[in-house]
């Protein structure tokens, strides 16, 4: 059972990274980015191609993160401008339709151009004993990166000028404008950061299992579940939800079977929302 829990923590930290990128974009712009998983896959394919061309793993991973950030920024500066001009449910609906269209287009393009594309970062080294369980080096490295990034994001949002500006826009966009903060610039930065987070998810995930060209939809679904359970707009909530759902996922896969894991996650998410509609750490409406 200890091994299952540890595997759940590894998976949960990756889930947390997924949820953070989704929840920040929604908190700032009221947009659920359904192309989020496809951004991760774009980054993964670029990293795989760079490594196949002889680029070392670390610089190749940096290229993937930059590419993810670039795609996020382009999306914000183009299609999202029409979305931001809407308000309320019209903004949410238009954002869903446009990002869904982007996701479908990217999926089709990637599967046509790289039908067998996949990223798998093989991390060497002997297993390391944690609580008597031998953990793979790749799993520990992926967990360490995810945890460090999560802590850095929390510190950034709480202790830096740009981070406090981001929180101000999330809490009250009109008030943020009145004190001189530019919501469009903050949104552009966060969209780019979200894209980089998607790239990081692809890189860390590939340390434990291959990221294939068809993984985009699964990434997006998991990101939505984590973001909603954690509380849309809450970074800490996303990581807490990610860890909890990661453990639920591995326990379910161990005792019931992998085929039903997504159903179990959706059930857990629905139960959480019924008990706490704003999410684990979401702010009151």
Tag the structure with descriptive keywords:
285 residues, mainly alpha, 12 helices, two-stranded antiparallel ribbon, ABC transporter involved in vitamin B12 uptake, BtuC
Major beta sheet summary = 2 strands, antiparallel
| Strand composition percent | under 5%
Can you give the mean pLDDT? 86
CATH topology title: ABC transporter involved in vitamin B12 uptake, BtuC
Note poorly predicted spans: none
**Alpha-carbon distance between the two ends:** 39 Å
How many separate helices?
Answer: 12
Please state the CA-atom Rg, rounded to the nearest Å. 18 Å
Number of strands: 4
**Helix proportion:** over 70%
CATH architectural type: Orthogonal Bundle
Summarize the structure.
This protein has 285 residues and is mainly alpha-helical. The chain has helices spanning 2-29, 36-52, 57-77, 79-84, 88-113, 137-159, 161-171, 173-178, 183-205, 216-230, 235-255, 261-275, and strands at 118-119, 128-130, 133-135, 211-212.
């Amino acid at each position: 059972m200890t091994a299952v829990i540890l595997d759940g923590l590894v998976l949960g930290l990756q889930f947390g990274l997924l949820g953070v990128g989704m929840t920040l974009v929604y908190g700032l712009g009221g947009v659920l980015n359904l192309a989020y998983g496809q951004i991760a896959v774009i980054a993964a394919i670029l990293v795989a191609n760079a490594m196949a061309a002889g680029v070392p793993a670390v610089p190749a991973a940096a290229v993937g993160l930059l590419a993810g950030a670039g795609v996020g920024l382009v999306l914000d500066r183009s299609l999202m401008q029409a979305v931001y001009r809407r308000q309320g449910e019209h903004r949410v609906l238009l954002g869903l339709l446009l990002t869904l269209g982007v996701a479908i287009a990217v999926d089709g393009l990637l599967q046509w151009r790289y039908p067998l594309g996949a990223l798998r970062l093989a991390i060497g080294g002997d297993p390391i004993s944690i609580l008597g369980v031998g953990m793979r080096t790749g799993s520990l490295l992926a967990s360490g990166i995810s945890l460090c990034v999560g802590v850095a994001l929390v510190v950034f949002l709480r202790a830096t000028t740009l981070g406090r500006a981001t929180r101000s826009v999330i809490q009250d966009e009109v008030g943020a404008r009145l004190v001189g903060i530019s919501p469009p610039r903050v949104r552009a930065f966060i969209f780019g950061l979200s894209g980089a987070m998607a790239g990081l998810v692809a890189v860390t995930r590939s340390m434990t299992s291959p990221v294939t060209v068809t993984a985009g939809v699964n990434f997006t679904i998991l990101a939505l579940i984590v973001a909603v359970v954690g509380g849309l707009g809450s970074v800490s909530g996303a990581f807490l939800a990610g860890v909890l759902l990661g453990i639920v996922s591995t326990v379910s896969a161990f005792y019931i079977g992998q085929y039903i894991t997504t159903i179990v996650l959706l059930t857990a998410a629905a139960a959480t929302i019924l008990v706490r509609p704003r999410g684990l750490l979401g702010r009151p409406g």
